[in-house]
Amino acid sequence: MSPDLLMLLVFGAAMLLGVPVAFALGLGGAAGIVVGLSPEMLATLGTNTYNSIAKYPLIAIPLFILTGLIFERAGVAASLVRFAQALIGPRHGGLGLVVVLVCLIMGGMSGSGPADAAAVAMVMLPSMTRAGYPKPFSAALIASASSTAILIPPSIALILYSIVVPGVDLRALFAAGLFPGILAGLSLLLPVWWLARRNGWEDPKQGERPPLKESFIRALPALFAPVLILGGLRSGLFTPTEAAVVAVTYGLLVGIFVYRQLSLKDVWRLLGEAGMVSGVVMIIISLAGIFAWAGTTLGTFNHLAQAMLSLSDNGWVLLMLIMVLVLLAGMLLDAISIYLIITPILIPLMQHFGWNPVWFGILLAMNIAIGQFTPPVAINLMVTTQIAGIRLEKTFGWALFFMLTMLSALVLVMLFPGIALWLPERLGFVVGAW
Fold first, then answer.
1. Helix (H, G, I), strand (E, B) or coil at 64
2. Cα separation of 267 and 251, whole Å?
3. Helix/strand/coil for 78
4. Distance of CA 340 to the CA centre of its chain
5. Model-level pTM?
6. For 54-65, what is each residue's pLDDT tens digit?
7. Does any domain span residue 420?
8. Please, are residues 381 and 140 in contact by the beta-carbon 8 Å criterion?
9. How many domains is the chain built from?
10. C-alpha dihedral, 415 to 418 to 420 to 425, nearest 10°
């Protein structure tokens, strides 16, 4: 048996046996090293795991995780919901529109879909239930809208992509994700409004419209967070990693002194929670380094790329096949694992067809975002259904419906790369192409 095949079989078998993805990646890489190189090369395991996480940009990941937790617990979601209700007013589908708008804004703070799903669901689910929305619909809508956090900067997934793909400017990725993220959110608005109107959900005569001025003032500190992060990156005031430090500091100031929802005891608890979540992420990244090193050294990734090229040499056909593959992977794995497993295989294909790496990274992120609320795994959906107190399978129909609507946004970005690339080019960031 070839080392390539053995490495992939060990990884696949470990996953099927329920081994955590981090350890499955490490075992697969180790098996490939033993058979394809030599047992003595196992001495590189420590070096590879260390080198995988000893990268300056990765410091931003635990910091943005902490930022998301701070804003989630600081009462930011409630202030944004009230402001969005003041803007939209009582109407059929109004609360659904509020969900999408708030998720887009929250995505500009946390970069994490599950965190946004939890924060928005806690605030919005009771109101939507009282207005007549079915709980499965509400849970599926919040799960799908919160998935845009993977696109709206700062995005933890895009940080990881910039590490895996050499030479990609993270600032360009952040800027490129803004319009596709908004487009993905907007793709949900019309179906939500139509369904609410058709089913008579949310009687406009019974709703109240909060005072706009008061709601805006209350939400202003939260609204300023994305402006601070993106404005600082654009002006060159700080790097993306430094932006994470600024975001944490700003979140603490807002949570403690403005909204007054955080105490020092809460901050200590959040630091511990962020440390545990970050630890899981870093273990995946470190052990994936073994898999990546083995696959690169053995030529496994190039062999897989050549096998995909043998299916078709038409760039559009192969791009569609890749999108289907990533969508299926998104239904089973988390975004971090997908980037670490699939991206090294796709780099030779990007080089072969001359696909713009920034545009391609956004396509991957949009596809993974859809996977976050598409069964069977659907991590965002798990969060919202748990808060709603309903079984996951009750939301499958609505989740598939929203998947189709968000796929339309993905197709648009695929056909018109300028949707993603216009803003980073306009801002003067490096948008390279192979």
1. helix
2. 11
3. helix
4. 14
5. 0.86
6. 887 788 888 888
7. yes
8. yes
9. 1
10. 160
Residue 272 maps to a domain: yes
301-340 pLDDT, tens digit each: 788 888 888 888 888 999 998 998 888 887 777 777 788 8
* Distance (Å, whole) CA 159 – CA 167: 13
Residues whose CB falls within 8 Å of the CB of residue 380, separated by 6 or more in sequence, listed in order: 113, 114, 117, 142, 143, 144, 146, 147, 372, 373
Alpha carbons 135 and 143: distance in angstroms, whole number: 12
CA 83/CA 216 separation, integer angstroms: 6
- 15 lies in a domain? no
Q: How far apart are CA 273 and CA 215, in angstroms?
A: 31
CA proximity to 85, closest of 121, 128, 118? 128
* pLDDT of res. 284: 83
In a domain, 26, yes or no: no
Count of CB atoms within 10 A of residue 257's CB?
10
Q: Where are the alpha helices (DSSP H) in 200-263?
A: 212-235, 240-253
d(CA 259, CA 256) in angstroms, rounded, equals: 6
* pLDDT of amino acid 355: 92
- Full residue range of the structural domain in which residue 363 is found: 37-427
User: Of how many residues is the chain composed?
Assistant: 434
| Whether the Cβ atoms of residue 202 and residue 133 lie closer than 8 Å to each other | yes
